[in-house]
Sequence to fold (76 residues):
Amino acid sequence: MYISLSDIIKNELFVHSKILAGDAGLNRKVKRVSVFDCHCEEERIEKGIYKEGDLFLTCLDQFAKDKTGIDAYFHA
Fold:
């Protein structure tokens, strides 16, 4: 059984969260969840690690002061 992203974000844990990718995918079924809040450098990102149905959660703190590398982070 899978759950949709729109159902997940109804949880009070996500009351202050923002969907950066737009509303179009909110009914997609989530199969796996990854939480990542560590500093991430482009050469450490394993290409193709994410699959269809993955939900990736992060606070993006590492980009709060310097946005350099944020595009590579999202397109890994």
Observations:
- The mean pLDDT is 78.
